[in-house]
Amino acid sequence: MNQQASVLFDAPGPRAQKVHLIITIIGWVLLIAAVAGVLWGLRDELTPAKLLPFADPMAWTGYLLPGLGATLAAAATSVVTAIILGVLLGCGRLSGIKIIRIVCGLFVEFFRAVPVLLMMVFSWYFFIFVLRVPSAWQSFAGVVVGLTFYNGSVIAELIRSGVHSLPKGQSEAGLAVGLTPSQVLTSIQLPQAITAMLPSLVSQLVVILKDTALGSLIVYSDVLKQATELSTWKGNLIATFIVVALIFIVVNYALTSFAQWLERRLRARGARPRPATAPPTAPGLPTV
Amino acid sequence: MGKFGQMMAQFDLLHAFWVTIQLSVLGALGALVIGTVVAIMRVSPVRSLQLFGAGYVNIIRNTPLTLLLFFCWFGLRISSGIQLGLPSDPTQVLSLRWAIIAVAVYHASFVAEAIRSGVNTVPQGQAEAARAIGLGFFDSLRHVVLPQAFRGAVAPLGNVLIALIKNTTVAATIGLYEAAYTMKGMIEFYPQLLYVTFALIALGFIILTLPTGIFFTSMSRKVAVQR
Amino acid sequence: MKIMRSLVAAGAAMVLTASLSACVSDEAADGGTAGGDGDSITIGIKFDQPGLGLREGSEYTGFDVEVAKYVAKELGYEGDKVVFKESVSAQRETLIESGQVKLIFATYSINDARKQKVSFGGPYFIAGQDLLVAADNTDITGPESLNGKKLCSVAGSTPAQNIKEKFAQQVDLQEYDTYSKCVQELSAGSVDAVTTDNVILAGFAAQPQYAGKLKVVGAPFTEERYGVGLKKGDTELCGKVNSAITKMIDSGDWQKAIDKTVGPSGFKVATATNPPKPDAGS
């Protein structure tokens, strides 16, 4: 990418550097002016009285941290269930039996088309009115089911495309040594497909974490709902939203960075046993 | 069936989906414009613009759309400098406008990434050739790189558009009478029609997203650059 | 003087018997120890309504909470034996039916649709739908003056529809999932009025951060009888709840609770209807 970008222009000369400097200064001035303008407009909402509650440990121990815990719990549960569902559906779409392929295909297409929020609201009411599960679990179940069905379908597609992207020789070789088609799928194709799809799987994680914020609409006690309660007590809605947004940005950024690190590590490790399939982009990485 | 008729009379489902469609189309246009600008910034020669582009993508992508929308609606709207119409305009008009802004700003980060991945599909030789015949940065982008990048980005852009259509449901949280908001009201007042309601709204979204997906898949095949 | 006292006593006794007899039900109570394991009692309240039921860290404040604590004490539960649980509007019936809470004090209006699923003790307060406006507002005097104004309420609730259908067709409705968003909008000047029960509005106006900025119009135009939700047909519990409420009213603790929780907003309870006679449950 950087190589790509750099061929679009020459190394800047003295005049271009001057122009860049001017653009940079104008850009910063505009940016600072915009931020200052917004802050000035919000001066009544960001008064010390409305910001100080966040210096109180109670705001964190009583609201934000439990909320963040609930958010992470729902996200983690959904990740596990979505991966299980996704692998099952993905295998179903690759099945030799036509009816299974069709049913799984319809399932995946349906849940990819239905908004997560809709699915959450529906399953929440389903748990309240039809299944009548304990109230502590109604919202949690609603959030997890909504996230699982959607993300499971996305993961199923990832797995399918991952298997399709493998060289044909892989499955042919498996069949030649006497494995059944399902053995070929589970012991040869799936492990490779999942490794290849790992980056996409991980970015799906961030999607799941962000989407748990929708749970506050079905009164799941996630960080957003806890924060709304806090702001009801303190009367500082906007300041609270800003703090919650910062929390999300930090957590998601950390998650993304961790995922990238994990991906590099897995790639480096995976390169040793299977040098033939090691991605060509990482030749310089040590195979320790 | 009487209950069903009563429900359909009470809730204007067609209008709800019309709001969803308006929000989707205008939000998508906005996202395309902002996203292209951000993508250009990220490949531009000016370091500060690259940083700004990267910062935009990283911050916006990691913020839930719900929060972005809240910030726009509860924050920017009362912030004195920015007005999208008169304060006396009907709330539904104002909330639609602000929802369009939030949807556009949020999805612009994904559009920028899609275009960047499209730029990555353009072989380096193309850019080199453009430079060799004396085109400057903007000319080589405009005539050589971007046309091919957009073609390569059609499939990921299609995915962004489908996600955008579904994400418009978040506008329910600021009380915009769109599809998800209407569904919540329907279930609350007619819980006995839970399945019918869900099926109806889901069908509406399938009608909106499925053809979009098919169109973009065939489009991406049609315009794909043969290499 | 003596006659007076005996009259009061007789009156109280009559109220007591009336409240007990008000809980008759043709359905047998199944008398389980729902919502409590005999040792503690679980009570459903709102967590996000200042002045009525508000969570402040690990504490709970508000009028609903005060009444709930009093009733729980009369039932033999005190201090940490009382467990509060959030009960949002959509979940109240299932919470009781499934036995996850024993009692609900959550701005729970008594009506016939709800009576098919749960029984009610009380009422312990008679509220009425009213309007909350900025303190310096003079042109909004009642629901009829809302034409062309922006009115905020909670989605899926009847109050807003009520106004639109009965009083002001031209009102511009804004709906959210919580009242706190409405009040935020009102204090920022984005909406002209917020509507729901007067005591809920008073609770918000009584919050220190809104002190002097908001006022309740004070012309209630509906009658909402706040009841204590409990398991359908549990007449025994209903009777105990009603006598506890009666005792709270007679002892003056009811008035003290009102003054302490929603009083700071300048809100005056309608003395024609309050304190009410707990005669629901029949």
Walkthrough of the structure:
The complex is a heterotrimer of chains A (288), B (227) and C (282). Chain A has a domain at 80-271: MetI-like (MetI-like fold, Orthogonal Bundle). Helices cover 77% and strands 0% of the residues of chain A. Chain A is flat, with a radius of gyration of 25 Å. Chain A has 288 residues and is an all-alpha fold. The longest helix of chain A has 37 residues, at 57-93. Mean pLDDT of chain A is 82; it is low at 1-5 and 271-288. Chain B is 78% helix and 0% strand. The longest helix of chain B is centred in the first third of the chain and has 31 residues, at 13-43. Chain B is globular, with a radius of gyration of 21 Å. The termini of chain B are far apart. Chain C has 282 residues and is an alpha/beta fold. Chain C folds into 2 domains: 2-127 and 226-265, Periplasmic binding protein-like II (D-Maltodextrin-Binding Protein, domain 2, 3-Layer(aba) Sandwich); 129-216, D-Maltodextrin-Binding Protein, domain 2, CATH 3.40.190.10. In chain C, the strands form 4 sheets. A 5-stranded mixed sheet of chain C has the order 10-9-11-8-12, sandwiched between helices. The longest helix of chain C has 20 residues, at 2-21. The chains are: A mainly alpha (288), B mainly alpha (227), C alpha/beta (282). The interface between A and B is large, with 56 and 65 residues.
